[in-house]
Amino acid sequence: MIIIENIHKSFNGNVVLNGISGEFQRGKTNMIIGASGTGKSVLLKCIVGLVIPDEGRVYYNGREFTGASKKTKIEIRREIGMLFQGGALFDSMTVENNIKFPLDRLTDLAEDEKLDKVNHVLKMVDLVDSNKKMPSELSGGMKKRVGIARAIVNGSNYLLCDEPNSGLDPVTAIRIDNLIKEITHELNITTVVVSHDMNSVMEIGEYVMFLYNGNKVWEGSKDNILDATEGAINDFIFANKMMQIVKKQSK
User: Which residues, listed in sequence order, are joined to residue 212 by a DSSP beta bridge?
Assistant: First the structure.
């Protein structure tokens, strides 16, 4: 579980996050949603420690992270897997070496043990026998799956995903959504997904936090989001629907 308490963050006097609190449950796909510029990615960066909040605390299974010692932060970060928007693969490395990178950096495992772990996660993301391929040989969806494999190869307890469906076609996006959900349930980890895509919300949103202008204005699940009465979230849902109509008409 990840708990955030009263997270505030401003840049140059501009309030980006205004007292955000919430609980992201283990074994669930937890989502932070909202339009562009609402503070979603900044909140995710506060959770992982890439941005230090002006106020507030982040807890990983009861361990305070925000004000922790350097040693404790390193220990917690070793339990976190990150999936970035573009996959963030090393272009000069094979799929195998990209996935193995965290094991090389963070463990003392023997090479054969590392390769066993790499092959195990490749099987989980349905990329068996892709070890020697280069990123340039992969489709966008395959790159995302390699990114997921790298994020979980070290036995992560937490999977944090920043716009995992960015740049993907609808069919591939659904596949990535379902893969993230399957891995979350199979490994019983705490997953947090930042997204602005209502299709993803309706596919995997077991807990949903909606941000608007740096404030948390709604929380719930995909099962009751369509019944939300807040104007901002209704506008967001409507805008998503209109975007889908425009995309279909443009084909």
Answer: 215
